[in-house]
């Protein structure tokens, strides 16, 4: 079967981004930076979530969706090497990307279940955003208490508030463009799955 150029390009880009995550892990190891090392490995593992989704459902994840997951993971991992401290907008960018991924997953879930997509997307992005901030604070505080290098870093109440603002923006982008972000093929798979489930009931 002939593979179209955009699909080949998407697969190549995804592989390159995964290699980038492994490179960040190596850099973290060489610098003795556990935050960069662990976050890069967790991000690398996250790039296989589309494979899990495909195996457990009838959905077909497009290469551009895989690139989206890999790019968001790589941005976060690279941030642990310095950009989070040195580049003021880096944290905002990673939260926007991550929230858009969470929101898109919530949008997909809502479409499959016939739920209100707007409510589901905003609840997911803001709810998980708050949980992430709480976990970030807890990890940072615990590490400092025991004199360890924190795997996650928090920069105070103002930064937390801005993180949640960009989480909300990511969710609103999905509310506005959710179906376009998912694409026709994935949406057709969702409708097919809903139809199969309805016949099974």
Could you walk me through the main structural features you see in this protein, from its secondary elements to its overall organization?
With about 200 residues, the chain is mainly α. The protein has 9 helices and no strands. The radius of gyration is 18 Å and the shape is globular. The two termini are about 35 Å apart.
Helix content: over 70%
Report the portion of residues in β strands: under 5%
Largest sheet: none
The assigned structural class equals mainly alpha
Sum up the overall morphology in one term. globular
What is the tally of beta strands? 0
Keywords summarizing the entry:
single chain; 201 residues; mainly alpha; 82% helix; 0% strand
Put the structure in a nutshell:
The protein has 201 residues and is mainly alpha-helical.
How are the SSEs ordered, and which strands pair?
Blueprint: H1 5-30, H2 34-46, H3 49-56, H4 63-79, H5 83-86, H6 90-113, H7 117-145, H8 157-182, H9 184-200
């Amino acid at each position: 079967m002939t593979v179209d150029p955009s699909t080949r390009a998407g697969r190549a880009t995804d592989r390159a981004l995964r290699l980038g995550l492994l490179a960040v892990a190596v850099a973290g190891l060489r610098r003795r930076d556990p935050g960069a090392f662990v976050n890069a490995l967790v991000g690398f593992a996250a790039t296989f979530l589309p494979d899990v989704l495909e195996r457990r459902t009838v959905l077909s994840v497009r290469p551009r969706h895989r690139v989206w997951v890999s790019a968001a993971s790589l941005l976060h991992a690279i941030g642990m090497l310095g950009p989070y401290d040195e580049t003021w907008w880096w944290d905002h960018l990673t939260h926007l990307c991550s929230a858009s991924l969470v929101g898109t997953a919530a949008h997909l879930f809502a479409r499959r279940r016939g739920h209100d997509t707007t409510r589901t997307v905003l609840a997911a992005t803001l709810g998980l955003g708050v949980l992430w901030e709480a976990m970030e604070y807890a990890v940072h505080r615990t590490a400092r208490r025991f004199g360890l290098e924190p795997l996650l870093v928090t920069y105070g109440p103002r930064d937390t508030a801005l993180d949640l603002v960009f989480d909300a923006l990511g969710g609103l982008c999905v509310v506005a463009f959710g179906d376009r972000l998912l694409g026709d093929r994935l949406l057709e798979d969702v409708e097919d799955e809903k139809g199969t489930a309805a016949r099974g009931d």
